[in-house]
């Protein structure tokens, strides 16, 4: 059961205010006490009654309401987390200047908990020097300002400045409730290449050989790295319809060969490679051009034989390319291993052998089995380093685990810079 925390959801006056309803609902359903503090402009988009019904708490906008309870001080003081979604250009500017002319800005001044701003505005406003400077100032003060998504904006416009999807906002909010220091803006200028999801190796136009990977862990690593300031490219295989993380360049692929091509294309510019994809070890040697039919002849063989060929080892190939001087920018290579124990050794025995065999700098290890690693929201495991340092990754959400992994990457980069 998630520990019940007090979360304030601030809502500024933008068209994306309707998405705040889902943020409130998801946080409340997670078991948290949610108080909505909108601006007057926000209530022109979504009425107070909606927020009150979703949160179960009264909605106020001014500092002269319920004065006996001193809400302009108390709400911020008691909060475990403040999330402003959407955070308009105007709200960001008022937060930077320390305005306290309504209940939301007063709450921001009194809050001593993590504060998250989820920006939403037109592209021109997001990239305007004033907004850029305001974002930098808020981050420098210790606030978390999420990278916005790219996509359809108001009217026919499209570009950067779209509010991240509510599920992404609540996922990152829960991360900060679990780890208040999980999203420092410390990877600016670092280019990170992440692979995620399973590959599908075609057998005929209908069938394929695949695996159970959902892509959730790789997506979580990409999401956390991007929100810590990294320039992230995500190469995504089969991911069961996961939404693209905000602020991430996503390249969709299908097979192991396509994944290898995509890594080869993007790796030369990357400083970090995180190989979280579950790449098929084998593919059919021959791919039928038409659907393989089931024979109705009772004397025919029960099933056709499938000859398999090894796929390319993308991780090992990248390690070799770096060693050969072909990837001069690459400073860290992180592998993933989904392992099971057997008669020859336990999970860690096989993982250490894989780390040595692959030659990567860090290896994230998961024990697989029923309800473990694949197609689940929570995970645990170990983080093995080439220098022999092993760290246990405690059980928790895949986003929480990703924050630990990105911590290790940041520390590794820092040690190499010394």
UniProtKB/TrEMBL annotation:
Stated role: Catalyzes two sequential steps in the biosynthesis of coenzyme A. In the first step cysteine is conjugated to 4'-phosphopantothenate to form 4-phosphopantothenoylcysteine. In the second step the latter compound is decarboxylated to form 4'-phosphopantotheine. Catalyzes two steps in the biosynthesis of coenzyme A. In the first step cysteine is conjugated to 4'-phosphopantothenate to form 4-phosphopantothenoylcysteine, in the latter compound is decarboxylated to form 4'-phosphopantotheine.
MF term (GO), any: phosphopantothenoylcysteine decarboxylase activity
Segments for region (Phosphopantothenate--cysteine ligase): 192-418
InterPro entries noted in UniProt: CoaB-like_sf, CoaBC, DNA/pantothenate-metab_flavo_C, Flavin_trans-like, Flavoprotein
Reaction equation(s) it catalyzes: (R)-4'-phosphopantothenate + L-cysteine + CTP = N-[(R)-4-phosphopantothenoyl]-L-cysteine + CMP + diphosphate + H(+); N-[(R)-4-phosphopantothenoyl]-L-cysteine + H(+) = (R)-4'-phosphopantetheine + CO2
Organism classification: Bacteria, Bacillati, Actinomycetota, Actinomycetes, Mycobacteriales
EC number from the UniProt entry: 4.1.1.36, 6.3.2.5
A Pfam family reported for this protein in Swiss-Prot or TrEMBL: DFP
Record-given protein name: Coenzyme A biosynthesis bifunctional protein CoaBC
Keyword Hydrolase: no
Designated gene of the protein: coaBC
């Amino acid at each position: 059961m998630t520990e019940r925390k007090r979360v304030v959801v601030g809502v500024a006056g933008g068209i994306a205010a309707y998405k705040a309803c889902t943020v409130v609902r998801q946080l409340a359903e997670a078991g948290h006490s949610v108080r909505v503090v909108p601006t007057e402009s926000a209530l022109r988009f979504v009425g107070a009654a909606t927020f009150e019904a979703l949160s179960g708490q009264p909605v106020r906008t001014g500092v002269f309401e319920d004065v006996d309870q001193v809400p302009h001080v108390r709400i911020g003081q008691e909060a475990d987390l403040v999330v402003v979604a959407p955070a308009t250009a105007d709200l960001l500017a008022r937060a930077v200047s320390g305005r306290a002319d309504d209940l939301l800005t007063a709450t921001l001044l009194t809050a001593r908990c993590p504060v998250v701003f989820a920006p939403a505005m037109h592209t021109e406003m997001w990239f305007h020097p004033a907004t850029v400077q305001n974002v930098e100032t808020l981050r420098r003060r210790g606030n978390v300002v999420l990278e916005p998504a790219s996509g359809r904006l108001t009217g026919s416009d499209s570009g950067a400045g779209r509010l991240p999807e509510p599920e992404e906002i609540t996922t990152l909010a829960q991360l900060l409730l679990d780890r208040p220091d999980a999203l420092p803006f410390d990877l600016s200028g670092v280019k990170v290449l992440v692979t995620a999801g399973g590959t599908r190796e075609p057998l005929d136009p209908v069938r394929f050989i695949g695996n159970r990977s959902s892509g959730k862990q790789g997506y979580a690593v990409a999401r956390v790295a991007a929100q810590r300031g990294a320039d992230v490219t995500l190469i995504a295989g089969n991911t069961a319809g996961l939404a693209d993380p905000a602020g991430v360049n996503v390249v969709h692929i299908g097979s192991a060969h396509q994944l290898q091509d995509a890594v080869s294309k993007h790796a030369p510019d990357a400083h970090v490679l995180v190989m979280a994809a579950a790449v098929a070890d084998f593919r059919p040697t021959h791919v039928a051009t038409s659907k393989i039919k089931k024979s109705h002849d009772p004397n025919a063989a029960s099933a056709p034989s499938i000859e398999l060929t090894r796929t390319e080892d993308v991780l090992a190939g990248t390690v070799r390319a770096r060693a050969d001087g072909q990837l001069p920018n690459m400073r860290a290579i992180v592998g993933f291993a989904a392992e099971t124990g057997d008669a020859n050794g336990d999970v860690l025995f096989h993982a250490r052998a894989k780390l040595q065999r692959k030659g990567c700098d860090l290896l994230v290890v998961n024990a697989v089995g029923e309800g473990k690693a694949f197609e689940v929201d929570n995970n645990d495991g170990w983080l093995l380093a080439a220098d022999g340092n092993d760290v246990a990754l405690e059980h928790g959400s895949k986003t929480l685990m990703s924050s630990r992994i990105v911590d290790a990457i940041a520390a590794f980069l820092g040690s190499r810079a010394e």
